[in-house]
Amino acid sequence: MVKLVVTEKPSAAMNIAAALGVKGRKDGCMEGNGWLISWCVGHLAELAEPAVYDPRYGKWRREDLPILPESWRFTISGKTRDQFDTLRELLRREDVSEVVNACDAGREGESIFRTVYYLAGCTKPIKRLWISSMEDAAIREGFANLRPGGDYDGLHQAALCRSKADWLVGINATRLFSVLYGRTLNIGRVVSPTLALIVQREAEITAFEPVPFYTVELDCGGVALAGERLGDKSTAQSVAAACKGGTAIVQTVERKEKSEKAPALYDLTALQREANRTLGYTAQATLDYLQALYEKKLCTYPRTDSRYLTDDMEATVPALVSAAAAVCGLDAPGEVLAGQVCSSKKVTDHHAIVPTRSAATTDIPALPLGEREVLRLVSLALLRAVCPPFRYAETTVTAECGGHSFTAKGKALLDIGWKAYADKEPSKDSVLPDGLTEGMPLPVEAVQVKEGKTAPPKHFTEDTILSSMETAGAGDMPDDAERRGIGTPATRAGILEKLVSSGLVERKKAKKITNLLPTQAGNSLIAVLPEALQSPLLTAEWEHRLGEVERGALSPEDFMAGIAALVTELVDTYQPVSGWEVLFPSGKERVGPCPRCGGAVSEGKKGFFCENPACRFALWKDSKFFSAKKKSLTKSIAAALLKDAQVRLKGCWSEKTGKTYDATVLLEDDGEKTNYKLVFDNG
Questions:
Q1: Residues 270, 466: contact at Cβ < 8 Å?
Q2: What's the whole-number mean pLDDT along residues 436-461?
Q3: 275-308 in b/e burial notation, b at 16+ Cβ within 10 A?
Q4: Which residues pair with residue 75 across a beta bridge?
Q5: How many CB atoms lie within 10 A of CB 657?
Q6: pLDDT of residue 673
């Protein structure tokens, strides 16, 4: 008897095979030492499109909404069919006694495996491999501690609920709004609230009116004193005049020793933010680089929301620190404070991202630039995290001059601590001279009135939008909510990429940063969306409820019932926004509505096409149907077909008789193909 191991990707299968000593290669799998190892290729099966449930759903019509499948179906694409068939055969082999789910340790990995497992009709016992590193030692340890598959039923249910919820909202809302507004409007459960955040930020920037303020500064020969902000220029000038040529009298001198604890290790979102801020990488690019490093055994599992290691890893931290130092070409800290990076209570499914011990001996310069730079960020984070605090002394001096109060602050370094591994040198703050005491006179050598203006909110970057997505709705969520915000660390990069690829958001460079700005289409979409579909709070609540499904505190049925109720209410009650036509100018003349998606059909050089690139509806001008009758598919004929699905044609030429005739042409579209049919007056 053999055990079948199913991985998410071929590369993971190769790593596991090497760790288990499996060398026999076959078509679509590897076999040896009592193991069969095969792989998925990401999602081999996806939730089926609406037309699979009913052919009438091939066309987009409001009267068919909401679409609420009673029994969910999956489809397998032609690209993945061969590997699915291979896995199905392996799962059904009589000598396979047990199946090990070795897909990525998270929601998506669980979903990928379970979908294939159930579609194959398999009922064999499941064991779960749950590891955070692809190093040989970690793999072997994971196989020595396989867990029962049933322990992850909740994780699978949460993943399935998320997929179904996204399907219900995406399918129904996209069709509803596309039909009502005459163009394809892609709407998503998590995409739309993220877009709403970006649109709202730009509205705040546009509406912002800067307010001037004034500050009086005194130069007292080595001591720079600043007064409070003043809203009136004349008042500031009066204060400056009162101080000119005068003497400031020191009122208080206060010295405090302060410290800054080392920042925590990176979870995925924190790393994506740092990589965007310092390297300009998109969230998706950072995730891709990190995934490649994980598969090369150079860092731990990327899709984590934890910033600590588990308590049982404390003994291994010094070795990891040595590896991190080797990656960066730096000396390791003299003292490694391993305990301050370990806390099992703060670790969920996976611990923080750290380099592996294998990174110590790898050829770092040989890595692609992106992987090299991301690995360096991860390594520096570990070096900082095990160091003592950054310590400094802060001195605050208050003084009085001309009846007004002024302040000066200075810092003095006590212990550089973790900032020894900061990419930037600690800021050189002003140092106040020694010997300042209460009552000391400070002659005013110069007076200056500085003018400033309040600054508007900043445009979102990927760094700042990730932060907002992470905390969206958090203030209104229960304190014990496990999942807050929009999306999860694993999905946020994909959300941003979808916004950009769909033309709702654009990346626009400004000096050394890249801002995320809503397009006209993005602004228009948010203008017509109801609050329920753009509320970050609602989305945060859904993420929280998915966490409850995962823990078994909420049934999948109850979660899906809530989503179905939302979708049904939306379809039943939503009315188009008045004057919406001005919100969606296409720049092209609209010939008619698309019979499939409800979008706009406009004229092109070779035909009449739906403006939604995903729709692919077309009426070709060189149609053999019309040319055989010595007729051309004109704009007026196309408009009639799109409006009424029929048009009256006179003087059609018959190839059989050589004579002309009149008839009605019917347009028939099944959602995939377009056909024409002739109907004569006599039926």
A1: no
A2: 95
A3: bbeebebbbbbbbbbbbbbbbbbbbbbbbbbbbb
A4: 46
A5: 8
A6: 84
Q: Phi, psi (5° rounding) for residue 79?
A: -70, -30
Collect all residues with Cβ–Cβ distance below 8 Å to 643 and sequence separation of at least 6.
592, 593
Sign of CA dihedral 276, 363, 23, 146: negative
Say which DSSP state 121 is in: T
pTM of this structure: 0.82
Angle (deg, nearest 10), helices 556-573 and 536-551: 150
Which of 117, 181, 289, 301 does the annotation list as catalytic? 301
Closest to 667 in 3D by CA, of 575, 592, 562, 590:
592
Spatial CB neighbours of 156, under 8 Å, sequence gap ≥ 6 = 110, 111, 114
| 388: DSSP letter | P
Please state the rounded mean pLDDT for residues 346-352.
89
Q: Please calculate the CA angle 441-252-407 and round it to the nearest 5 degrees.
A: 80
Give the chain's count of helices (H) and strands (E).
20, 26
Report all structural domains of the chain as residue ranges with CATH numbers, in order of start: 2-161 (3.40.50.140), 165-205+458-573 (1.10.460.10), 212-261+390-453 (2.70.20.10), 268-385 (1.10.290.10), 591-679 (no CATH)
Q: Specify the higher pLDDT residue, 425 or 337.
A: 337
Distance CA 46, CA 62 (A): 25
CB 355 within 8 A of CB 226: no
- C-alpha–C-alpha distance, residues 560 and 166, integer Å: 11
CA distances for 234 relative to 447, 448, 449, angstroms: 15, 13, 10
8 Å CB contact between 562 and 165:
no
Count of all residues that appear for the chain in the document:
683
**Residue 181 bears catalytic tag:** no
For residue 474, the tally of other CB atoms under 10 A from its CB is 13
| Distance between CA atoms of residues 563 and 164, nearest Å | 9
User: What is the band of 481 on the pLDDT scale with cuts at 50, 70, 90?
Assistant: very low
- Supply 253's token pair: 């001198």
Q: Reduce the DSSP state of residue 27 to 3 states and report it.
A: coil
